[in-house]
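<backbone_tokenisation>
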Amino acid sequence: MYLSALAILACPECHEPFHLTVREHTRDEIDKVADPMSGDKLSSILSRLSYDALRKRVKGLELPPNPEDLYDILFREAVVNGVLRCESCQKDYDVKNRIPRLVMPL
């Protein structure tokens, strides 16, 4: 799961945004220069997710100090294992092998 997914993922029960705790991550080798859409992708994500909000909602992964440097962290750093937590209803959802498991707990 890439951090850019936080712009669209929400709790399946109450629809509030998630907080993410990263337990394991990896860096994908994608050539930013070869991606002609890199600026458009970053603008699209930042229009839905403020940088300050992102910094407050992600633990376990160091974010760059400037939003202009976010491309690598949003589109190259993949969360391999972690936890998506809904602070509103206090439910946790695992991220395993890069896939957010949004099945509601029983």
